[in-house]
């Protein structure tokens, strides 16, 4: 039984995405298979070199770098949304896999949860 958590919210300005990340870490810490899919404005979580000091929040890069330590199986990014937000593979954090967020992807998971 595996879970796919979708984050479609931008990384700053709200807490919904961070709460979804916490949920993924909690599942993984209890040996529950979990992956994260970033889509829509959520793909901006995966952008290298973020400097969120102006919005007075910490960079999400450090949080995401802990994903493998906690046991999150995969960080996935919708390729169409990356294109829409001008993100190329070289601009994404290390270990991110570009995918198509389609029925075939969702069929590979027992559960799907949405942030927001």
How would you characterize this protein structure?
The protein is of the alpha/beta class and about 120 residues long. It has a single domain, classed as DsrEFH-like (Hypothetical Protein Ychn, Chain: A). It is built from five helices and five strands, in the order βαβααβαβαβ. It has a five-stranded parallel beta sheet with strand order 4-3-2-1-5. Helix 4 links the parallel strand 3 (about 75-80) and strand 4. The mean pLDDT is about 90.
- The assigned CATH architecture is 3-Layer(aba) Sandwich
Strands, count: 5
Low-confidence stretches: none
Give the amount of beta strand, in percent.
Answer: 15-25%
String of helices and strands: EHEHHEHEHE
In whole angstroms, how far apart are the ends?
A: 23 Å
Strand order of the largest sheet: 4-3-2-1-5
CATH hierarchy class name: Alpha Beta
Helix-strand makeup class: alpha/beta
The CATH topology annotation reads as Hypothetical Protein Ychn, Chain: A
Whole-number average pLDDT?
Answer: 88
Q: Shape from CA axes? A: globular
Using only CA atoms, what is the Rg? 13 Å
**What's the helix count?**
5
Topology:
Layout: E1 3-7, H1 16-29, E2 34-38, H2 60-65, H3 67-70, E3 74-78, H4 79-84, E4 96-99, H5 103-107, E5 111-115
Parallel strand pairs: 1-2, 1-5, 2-3, 3-4
Give a nutshell description of this structure.
With 116 residues, this protein is an alpha/beta fold. It is built from five helices and five strands; from the N terminus they run βαβααβαβαβ. Strand 3 (74-78), helix 4 (79-84) and strand 4 (96-99) form a beta-alpha-beta unit.
